[in-house]
Amino acid sequence: xxxxxxxxxxxxxxxxxxxxxxxxxxxxxxxxxxxxxxxxxxxxxxxxxxxxxxxxxxxxxxxxxxxxxxxxxxxxxxxxxxxxxxxxxxxxxxxxxxxxxxxxxxxxxxxxxxxxxxxxxxxxxxxxxxxxxxxxxxxxxxxxxxxxxxxxxxxxxxxxxxxxxxxxxxxxxxxxxxxxxxxxxxxxxxxxxxxxxxxxxxxxxxxxxxxxxxxxxxxxxxxxxxxxxxxxxxxxxxxxxxxxxxxxxxxxxxxxxxxxxxxxxxxxxxxxx
Length: 273
What we know:
Elements: E1 6-10, E2 13-18, E3 23-29, E4 36-39, E5 43-44, E6 47-52, E7 63-68, E8 74-75, E9 87-90, E10 98-99, E11 112-115, E12 121-122, E13 134-137, E14 145-146, E15 158-161, E16 167-168, E17 180-183, E18 191-192, E19 205-207, E20 214-215, E21 228-231, H1 236-241, E22 259-262, E23 268-271
Parallel strand pairs: 3-6, 4-7, 6-8, 7-9, 8-10, 10-12, 11-13, 12-14, 15-17, 16-18, 18-20, 19-21, 21-22
Antiparallel strand pairs: 1-2, 2-3, 5-6, 22-23
């Protein structure tokens, strides 16, 4: 017999059944609360658990670890914002597709996470002002979109961008503390959009991969001569053509300028102060 929308309490959590998805999503902690480790079940009443809902664990200081089953396809916006979570693990074969905006923002105890290969998108401010130090990606990551995902990360030390990412989206690393950004071999990166690395003052050097076609306005705003951008262009003319607004200054508008060298010829293309 078909069932409609309903709430269901189960093992310390409240779930919402969505008949359109034929599955449950985690709605919130129930009134009994839960502490320590949270293990989300694969099934409830023979229906799969398919999502962690918006703000489901927001402010839940009592939890310290979460185990996410294979069938979860979405982690909703602000799902773990300001929670006490220290550990996030995924069952082997995870089918997670999306981590939504601010999902892990302001988490003060989460230091590392490995993103399943199935994830295609990470939303805006997903790790904003969190304590995250290490973000890894499973082999053969399917990640394509990261809309401001790593902005405001205070403790992130390094990140390797998966090969399928073709665009560094607006504000992706805005005001991040990241020290090293590298690109996976076989990368498809073609576009760096506005504000992508703006005010990323701890990033001393970045080597952009071959194939870059456009670099957006303010992409490196706030960078200084202590920071170096190596670009895969042989000549000034080819490099200049990649920068939006008709020339390189657009990428630093309203800020100071870094030095830019060709990673092929070693020639300094621009140096502004």
